[in-house]
Every structure is written in structure tokens, then in C-alpha cells.
Design brief:
Length: 68
């Protein structure tokens, strides 16, 4: 995990650090899922990290299986 953390941008680290450490895994997974979907749709993995952190603070959590 240390290597993965080293690859994070400053914006991602700053947004992640606004969350309690217990939410970091949720944030990291959300970022990866969002990057994947953004790349599929727009050919770019652009992410607004602070918006994802805000969504986790608002209560977002993965709660279901994927829909095909």
C-alpha cells in the first residue's frame, strides 16, 4: 500500500486527509472506480478528489453488487 500511496497526487492526498482514517479504504476504492469509469466514457481518468471526499462525508458507500 505504501507504493500506491506514493503514487497519489497532492490533491488526492489532501482530499483523503479530510476524511477520518477509517474512511480511507472507501475513498481509495471510490477513486479507482471513478477513474475506471471516467476513462471508459471520456478516455481520461479525471477525478475531482475533493468532490469524492465530500460524497463520502455525506454518507456515500458502496452498498450493492454491480448491475450488468
Amino acid at each position: 500500500m505504501a507504493d500506491e500511496y506514493d503514487k497519489k497526487s497532492m490533491k488526492e492526498i489532501e482530499a483523503r486527509n479530510t476524511l477520518p482514517q477509517s474512511s480511507w479504504d472507501d475513498f481509495d476504492q471510490f477513486v479507482q472506480d471513478y477513474k475506471y469509469c471516467a476513462t471508459l466514457r471520456h478516455n481520461k481518468p479525471y477525478v475531482s478528489y475533493i468532490v469524492l471526499a465530500d460524497m463520502i462525508k455525506a454518507g456515500w458507500r458502496r452498498s450493492a453488487e454491480e448491475i450488468e
